[in-house]
Amino acid sequence: MILQALLIVACLLAACALPWNLSQRRQHRVVQTLNRDLLLGLELMQGVQRHRALGGQTGQDAVRDRQCLELQLERSWQAWPDADHHRAWRSLLQAPADFEGHCRLLESLLARIRFLELHMCRLLQRTPGIADRCWQVEDLGRLRGLSIRAAALPECPLELRIQLQYLHDRLLGSADTELREALAQLARNLFSTRSLALQPAQLYALFTPLIDKRIEALRSSLD
């Protein structure tokens, strides 16, 4: 009788554990999907930011790099779950110099990244932070894009100078040594003169490694 009772208890425990195991496996699959989409979102964010910066340049190297980037991103866009974002991207291919259009698409991408991260953090009971760091990267990306456009003009308009000053000051508060040096170089060339002495390609080369470094750190936190 005792053995029979033990067998019944064991069967009951196994029956209870089965739904729990299935639930755990299901949650694991959901987390994997969310993680994959977040990594894809980071790739697209980086690509759109770079496209925005290259779109502000007219040199042959920049045009060639932009066209290569467009080809590289096409498969990633097809895998991205939001069709509206892909349509917005296709429109930007016809207007690569559209700074505001790139910004709007990036804002929508970052909103989606925040949604995905909140979902994953709820399942894993973690504190979110990736989306906020993405917005910091976007501030730097906007500074890069605007400074490139300022450098392409004979004289930087006051409105553009104000935007650059705002982004400069906003980034300076939490800047590491590398970023501080880059911001100082921009300030010397912009805020003390009426036009930028640096060329668009030089500004692209100055800020792009800093942006890539931050995006790579975000990828590592997901991996």
Features:
single chain; 223 residues; mainly alpha; 8 helices; 0% strand
Concise description?
Helices cover 83% and strands 0% of the residues. It has 223 residues and is mainly α.
Layout of SSEs?
Blueprint: H1 2-55, H2 60-79, H3 83-93, H4 99-124, H5 130-151, H6 158-172, H7 177-190, H8 200-222
Give the uncertain stretches in residue-range form.
Answer: 5-18
Q: Give average pLDDT, whole number.
A: 88
Q: What's the order of the H and E elements?
A: HHHHHHHH
Largest sheet: none
Rg computed from alpha carbons, rounded to a whole number of angstroms: 24 Å
SS elements, strand count: 0
What is the overall number of helices? Answer: 8
Overall form: globular
What structural class do you assign from the helix and strand content? mainly alpha
Question: What is the helical fraction, as a range of percent?
Answer: over 70%
Amount of beta strand: under 5%
State the end-to-end CA separation. 53 Å
- Give me the oligomer status: single chain
